[in-house]
Amino acid sequence: MTKATGSGSSLIETHSLVFGNTSARDTGLGAWKVNEGTSNALGANSFWVYCLDPLNNYLSPDTYDKVSLNNFVNGYQATPGGATMGYASIFAGANYQATGIKGMYDDSTTTTSRVLADLTNLFEHAYSDSLTSSTKSAAFQFAIWEILGDGAGKSSDKKYYSAAYTNSGLDVNETGTSFKNQVDVYLAGLNGTWAAGLTGTTNYTFSVYNPNPSGSGQALIRATARAVPEPGSLALVSLAVFGVVYTRRQSKKH
After folding, report:
1. pTM above 0.85, yes or no
2. What span, in angstroms and rounded, lies between the C-alpha atoms of 183 and 214?
3. What is the pLDDT of residue 230?
4. Farthest CA pair distance, the chain
5. Taking burial as the number of CB atoms within 10 A of a residue's CB, which of 11, 96, 120, 163 is the most buried?
6. What is the per-residue pLDDT across 204-218, written as a single tens digit (0 to 9) for each?
7. In what residue span(s) does the Ice-binding protein C-terminal domain sit (predicted)?
């Protein structure tokens, strides 16, 4: 896989973030376009991806296992009998086990079932919206990283803290409001209250491009909208089924 280059190939913004109990770091957040293969030409086959691995560096080009989101979150074997790869193996890597990170920005703060459900929920409500501006895209990326490693939240309800909160596993370390406000829109949705314009949903099929070996680059997620059959097609299917049933009933008379 290779990063596509050219105008319109990136929605990334840089913001100051704090992971766990470490120093603030300037971090690029947002979607960018890539190609399967080695071409960096931006074209019809280029597609948007988001990062599932904030503490490892993105490499382009890189070699990936292409797996479902379910397999990534719950673990998979690239070869029979091989090491289990995916979400847990990323958080078992050196950058996530480092002092100040481990136990704070950590997969132990959540569960795989919650990660899978919340990622699906976030994309179904807000993925399309996230691609309309770089600020929204950066906020959407932040929400993804919240889901992955900062799930402890408020002790009473296990929900996600506001971006303004400064004592969790992933915090925003800047005074500007537009990015933080947009983060809060998406986190509020994950907490159960989607804003106007985000209440509807779109179903997606997810592909995860996971570096092999794990930690050699960044795991990336692609969302592809599922095709919805046109009403006419559904009617034809219904008529066909009815025809089969009707024929069978008629045959019983003879």
Report:
1. yes
2. 28
3. 61
4. 83
5. 163
6. 999 999 998 777 899
7. 227-249
